[in-house]
Amino acid sequence: MYLVGVTGGIAAYKTAELVRLFMREGNEVQVVMTPGAAQFVTPLTFQTLTGRPALVDQFWVSDGEKVRHIDLASAARVFVIAPATANTIGKLARGIADNLLTTIYLAARCPVVVVPSMNEQMYLHPAVQENLSRLREHGCLVMEPDTGDLACGICGKGRLPELSQIAAFVSSSLREKDFRGLRALVTAGPTREPLDPVRFISNRSTGRMGYAIAAALAERGAKVILVSGPTALPRPAGVEFVPVETARQMHGAVLERFGATDLVIKAAAVSDYCPAETAEQKIKKGDGRALTLQQNPDILEELGRCKEKQILVGFAMETEKAAEYAREKLRRKNLDLIVLNDLTVPGAGFGSLTNQVCIFNRAGGAEELPLMSKELLAHRILDRVRPLVPARP
Ligand code: C5P
Q1: Domain encompassing residue 258
Q2: Of 91, 176, 335, 368, which has the most beta carbons under 10 Å away?
Q3: Do 277 and 292 contact (CB within 8 A), yes or no?
Q4: Which residue has the least CA distance to atom 2 on ligand 1?
Q5: d(CA 268, ligand 1 centre) in Å
Q6: CB of 370 within 8 A of CB of 358?
Q7: How far is residue 91's CA from residue 105's CA, in Å, rounded to a whole number?
Q8: Are 333 and 350 in contact (CB under 8 A)?
Q9: Alpha carbon distance 213, 18 (integer Å)
Q10: What average pLDDT does the chain have?
């Protein structure tokens, strides 16, 4: 059960939608409100959404209930306090238990996620910052507020983060840290092979699959380096980011770091060829030249040759004889797993938000996965990778 604490800030109206999001993910939700929160949104709103009375009164006990705050605290998988006002943050930091929400906090042993939201001046006040530091020391997971328009009319730091970001933060706080202590290198995106200062050869990769894998690894506790070709995606949080442009640059960046990694996942769509020559000046119309290409180094194949204990995972995207080529690549590149993108399925492959793959292993096994979001797929791939990686001492 998700326990959602609502305190008396204007962002309390957004918590109704957050509760819906949690429920849509299949969670049962119990709402607890401070008396201040009940001034902004009525308990009836939350009761209607969750099917359970939203609890405010610390001293009212229903039939069959023993000690309400202890029962609620022990039934919770996670306690999400959103919005958390300066007042409640102060009370939690100092162990003041003067309402149901603050009392439950002291009894809770599950992960506690605190989502502050208030006016910028209040948020930046040393008293609030000190209290937030105390909460972090208690083991609370405190989210950074967003910057933008605030209800008080100014623009600044203090907005409740996007609800989808809160939901992602909460699921990450619940995720098992099964990659803790492992060093992972992920490549993502296309490469660009310059023809002249303004033109290049590239492909349709957006980098989304590789970025989702890097984010999932970080969520699961790995130390992650993301070597990325040019993409339009935001850098995943908690990941060391190494931007590159060409296949040769990616080759250099990956080989330099290979010795110090336990796991490499190569989701990048590396250009197999680059122009044999890059013109120093822009090629003029009517030059009538033929394009001569030369082969780029195959990074993964090279890693496969020099690997010691590292686990290597490759991706494959084929337009014909897909399974046969994927198996051949797994052998030739000395990989532990290869993930084959099914380009024939609508909603799979380049640029889409979803993907459908088949995962081949060294023992000859092939596992077909259903169409799913690239974020979810990243975790499913990691579930298959984890047993292959030896635990670090
Ligand atoms: O041989 P193919 O390009 O189909 O293999 C795909 C896999 O090999 C991907 O994991 C890709 O990142 C990697 N690769 C590489 N260097 C290349 C070409 C592909 O590391 N030059």
Answers
A1: 183-278+290-388
A2: 335
A3: yes
A4: 316
A5: 7
A6: no
A7: 10
A8: no
A9: 25
A10: 93
Question: Which of 257, 266, 350 to mutate to test ligand 1, by most ligand atoms within 8 A of the CB atom?
Answer: 266
Angle between helices 12-24 and 163-174 (to 10 degrees): 50
Question: Rg of the chain over CA atoms, in angstroms?
Answer: 26
Tokens describing residue 92: 């939690």
15 and 124 belong to one structural domain: yes
Q: How far, in Å, CA of 238 to CA of 222, rounded?
A: 10
CATH number at residue 122: 3.40.50.1950
Do 199 and 160 lie in a common domain? no
So which residues are the catalytic ones?
A: 152
Q: Tell me the per-residue pLDDT of 320-363, one tens digit each, with 9 for 90 and over.
A: 889 999 999 999 999 999 999 987 778 777 778 888 999 999 99
Q: How many domains does the chain have?
A: 2
Question: Do 186 and 265 form a contact (C-beta atoms < 8 A)?
Answer: yes
One domain, residues 56 and 159: yes
Q: Indicate whether 12 and 149 sit together in one domain.
A: yes
Locate 365 and state its tokens: 């096994």
Q: What is the pLDDT of residues 11-59, one digit of tens each?
A: 999 999 999 999 998 999 999 999 999 999 999 999 999 999 999 988 7
Q: Is the CB of 54 under 6 A from ligand 1?
A: no
Which token pair is 69? 């705050």
Distance 166 CA to ligand 1 centre (A): 35
Q: Give the end of a domain, one of 141, 174, 207.
A: 174
What is the CATH classification number for the domain harbouring 319? 3.40.50.10300
28 lines ligand 1 (CB under 6 A): no
Q: How far is the CA of 190 from the centre of ligand 1 (A)?
A: 11
> Which residue's entry shows tokens 């044999």?
276
Q: Which of 270, 295, 335 to mutate to test the pocket of ligand 1 (most atoms within 8 A of CB)?
A: 270
Q: Do 246 and 222 sit in the same domain of this protein?
A: yes
Atom of ligand 1 nearest to the CA of 297: 21
Could you tell me if 225 and 77 lie in one domain? no
For the Cβ of 266 lying below 6 angstroms from any atom of ligand 1, the answer is: yes
Four-point Cα dihedral 316, 320, 322, 324, nearest 10: -120
